[in-house]
Write a structure and sequence with these properties.
Elements lengths: L2 E2 L10 E6 L2 E9 H16 L7 E7 L4 E7 L7 H5 L7 H20 L2 E2 L8 E6 L2 E6 L6 E2 L5 H25 L4 H25 L4 E3 L5 H11 L4 E8 L6 E8 L4 H10 L5 H22 L5 H23 L6 H19 L4 H10 L26 H7 L5
Antiparallel strand pairs: 1-2, 2-3, 3-5, 4-5, 6-9, 7-8, 10-12, 11-12
């Protein structure tokens, strides 16, 4: 079983990677009691389909009092340094995506009664999902699972996250020899994780009071939840009991798979929520185009089959070739759609696929485009610090 060298950040315990049976596995050696606890937590997270590395086994070493926790290596994932050391610091949009992903991960965990205890950039892996990032918990040594978290527990976890994110960004700025102004900006950005967390939490747990005559607002609240990618399991309405014709709305919010479930039901594709949102919009635009051309109703199922054969599959092939085969074909197609839209907005007209493919192939996409994050997926050797020369290479617009 050959060991593989995989770039990882600092760790309290020895972590090695081994390749066998065509798969890559992470082996972490730690005290037996802690290993057993982490293994149990990870199994629980897997059962709840929460974004965390998947446990594969536990090897106990009773003579030494240690154990080796075996987890499946998360394909096409990377640490925050891999992205932020390859993106010019001025391009804040990509850090925003990363911080949004951290806040979303913590919300997902807290909604399921999981207290992380050591939430940080270093204990998280990221993967691309359409125009956003998906964050994955990779270290559960300090995690606890409860029926429900108190406000105090949630706030404590958020405080830990803000402090650790600030430390991670500060360390990165030191490595990149950034200006004092950049350090101040990064501290503010780290603090914004709490705001991002609170904003998402408040939307998911809002219980608005509406008048009986304004029941249409229920649909608006549900749409807001769906737009964030969450499904709604139950809708409960109760009179407030204050003598007025007012109702309190309570929504039971399910997993963040609303668009992904829709797309899978229609096409059979199993993709991330962010990718599904983009692909569904593309599918429905194609369905509308078919109906205009034929002046006839085209069912979603028929449109989906034609879209898959005539649009998606050839589009994935062209887009994946344009980016040199880096990353997943489905993500490359999502990048193509985004870049085409951004360039069309700039031009004031539809520029078509050819122009967008050319931009992808030459890495000349708009700076804030999610497609810029492709650099995190590219396989390279030693990562270079972003010197002025490297910055100019990555972004010709940087002076």
């Amino acid at each position: 079983m050959p060991f593989r060298d995989i770039p990882v950040g600092p760790s309290r315990h020895l972590v090695r990677f081994v390749e066998t049976d065509g798969a890559l596995w992470a082996l972490k050696e730690l005290p037996q009691r802690i290993a057993e606890k982490e293994y149990a937590v990870l199994r629980d997270l897997e059962a709840r389909s929460l974004p965390a590395v998947r446990p594969a086994g536990l090897v106990v070493q009773p003579d030494e009092g240690n154990a080796i926790l075996v987890t499946r290596y998360l394909e096409r994932s990377w640490q925050y340094r891999r992205l932020l050391m390859r993106i010019p610091p001025e391009q804040r949009a990509h850090r925003d995506r990363l911080l949004d992903a951290m806040a979303s991960l913590l919300v997902d965990l807290h909604r399921n009664g999981v207290f992380w205890g050591d939430c940080s950039l270093a204990n998280t892996l990221f993967s691309r999902d359409g125009q956003v990032l998906q964050a994955w918990l990779v270290d559960a040594e300090t995690s606890e699972i409860h029926p429900q978290l108190s406000s105090g527990q949630r706030q404590h976890d958020v405080d830990i996250l803000v402090e650790n994110v600030a430390a991670g960004l500060y360390d990165l700025a030191l490595r990149l020899d950034q200006s004092e102004e950049m350090f101040d900006a990064l501290v503010e950005e780290a603090a914004s994780v709490a705001t991002r967390y609170e904003a998402l939490w408040d939307v998911l747990h809002a219980e608005p009071v509406i008048s009986y005559d304004e029941r249409f607002q229920i649909e608006g609240q549900i749409r807001k939840i769906h737009e964030l990618g969450f499904a709604v399991d139950e809708v409960n309405l109760q009179f407030t009991g204050d003598g007025t014709q007012t109702l309190q709305l309570k929504l039971v919010v399910a997993a963040r798979r609303f668009h992904a479930t829709q797309l899978q039901n229609i096409t059979g594709l199993d993709v991330g929520e962010g990718q599904a949102k983009i692909l569904l919009a593309d599918l429905r635009a194609y369905q509308g185009k078919l109906q205009r051309e034929t002046s006839a109703f085209i069912s979603e199922q028929i449109a989906a089959r034609r879209w898959t054969d005539e649009v998606l599959n050839p589009g994935m092939d062209r887009a994946h070739k344009a980016v040199g085969g880096v990353g997943e074909p489905i993500q490359a197609y999502c990048d193509l759609l985004e870049v085409r839209w951004l360039l069309s907005e700039r031009a004031g007209e539809d520029v078509g696929d050819t122009v967008a493919l050319d931009a992808l192939s030459k890495s000349s996409v708009p700076p804030d485009s999610a497609a810029k994050m492709l650099v995190a997926e590219a396989s390279t050797g030693q990562m270079r610090a972003l010197s002025p020369g490297v910055l100019a290479e990555l972004d010709p617009d940087v002076d």
